[in-house]
C-alpha cells in the first residue's frame, strides 16, 4: 500500500544450528513517531489507526471508545474512499491473524488497541485559559479527556496535570510551572508519541520472546544479521 515508505529501521538476527533456524531477534531503530501527531500534505498517519477504525466491529468500537474517523484530529480527514476502507478492513484482519499466529494473547491485543484508541482521543483535547490564567480543557474537550483517561487507565485529574503544568523537585522543594497553551499542546502531542513508541517497542519485545523460546545463547551457533529500512504494516 506504501511500498516506498520508510517509517523505521530494523536489524534482524537469525541464529542457526545444524543448518536449521533456531531463533530470531529484532531490534528497531528510528521509529518516525512524529507521524502520529502530524502528517505532511498527501501523507497519512500509521496504518494501524485506519485498520482499527475500518476493521473493528461496531460493538467492539464501543468497547474501545472509537468514534467516527472524521472526528479525530490525528487522522486529519484522510480516512479514504470506500475502496480504501475495504483495504484497511482486510489489513486489520491480517494484522489480527498475524498476532494470533505469533502467539499474542487476546487480552494483550485488547490492551494494545485500547491504548492506540486512547492516542486518538488524546489528540482531540484542546485548552483554554481560566480567569486565573491557568489552562483547562475546553468544555468541548471534556468527553475526549474522559475517554483518553479511561483508555490509558489513569485518572482525569492526573492526565490534565501532565498536560497543563510541569512539576520539578529541587532540594526537596516542589516547583510547579504552568504551561502556556502552546506548551500544553506540545505536551499532549509528546505523550501521544511516547505512548505510540512504547506500544511499538512492547510489540517488538513480545515478538522476540515468542521467536526465541528457551534459547541457550551459550551454545555454539551461526548467525546472519540483516539491517532493513521498511514500512510499518502492523503499526
Automatic annotation (TrEMBL):
Keywords: Actin-binding, ATP-binding, Cell projection, Cytoplasm, Cytoskeleton, Motor protein, Myosin, Nucleotide-binding, Repeat. It is found in: Cell projection; Cytoplasm, Cytoskeleton. PROSITE patterns: MYOSIN_MOTOR. The keyword Glycosyltransferase does not apply. It comes from the Eukaryota. One of its GO terms (biological process) is regulation of actin filament length. It holds the Pfam family Myosin_head. GO terms for cellular component: cell projection; myosin complex. GO terms for molecular function: actin binding; ATP binding; microfilament motor activity; protein serine/threonine kinase activity. The keyword Cytoplasm applies. Its main location: other. Residues 1-235 form the Myosin motor domain. Belongs to the TRAFAC class myosin-kinesin ATPase superfamily. Myosin family. This is Unconventional myosin-VIIb. It comes from Acipenser ruthenus (Sterlet sturgeon).
Amino acid at each position: 500500500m506504501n511500498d516506498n515508505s520508510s517509517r523505521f529501521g530494523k536489524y534482524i538476527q537469525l541464529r542457526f544450528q545444524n543448518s536449521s533456524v533456531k531463533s530470531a531477534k529484532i531490534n528497531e531503530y528510528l521509529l518516525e513517531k512524529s507521524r502520529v501527531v502530524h502528517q505532511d500534505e498527501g501523507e497519512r498517519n500509521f496504518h494501524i489507526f485506519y485498520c482499527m477504525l475500518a476493521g473493528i466491529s461496531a460493538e467492539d468500537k464501543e468497547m474501545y471508545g472509537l468514534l467516527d474517523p472524521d472526528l479525530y484530529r490525528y487522522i486529519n480527514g484522510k480516512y479514504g474512499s470506500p475502496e480504501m476502507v475495504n483495504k484497511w478492513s482486510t489489513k486489520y484482519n491480517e494484522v489480527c491473524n498475524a498476532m494470533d499466529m505469533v502467539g499474542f494473547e487476546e487480552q494483550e491485543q485488547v490492551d494494545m488497541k485500547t491504548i492506540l484508541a486512547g492516542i486518538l482521543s488524546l489528540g482531540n483535547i484542546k485548552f483554554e485559559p481560566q480567569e486565573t490564567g491557568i489552562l483547562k480543557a475546553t468544555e468541548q474537550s471534556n468527553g475526549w479527556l474522559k475517554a483518553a483517561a479511561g483508555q490509558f487507565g489513569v485518572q482525569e485529574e492526573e492526565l490534565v496535570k501532565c498536560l497543563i503544568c510541569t512539576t520539578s523537585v529541587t532540594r526537596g522543594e516542589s516547583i510547579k510551572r504552568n504551561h502556556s497553551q502552546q506548551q500544553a499542546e506540545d505536551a499532549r502531542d509528546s505523550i501521544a508519541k511516547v505512548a505510540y513508541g512504547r506500544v511499538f517497542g512492547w510489540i517488538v519485545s513480545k515478538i522476540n520472546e515468542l521467536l526465541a523460546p528457551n534459547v541457550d545463547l551459550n551454545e555454539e551457533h551461526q548467525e546472519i544479521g540483516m539491517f532493513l529500512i521498511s514500512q510499518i504494516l502492523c503499526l
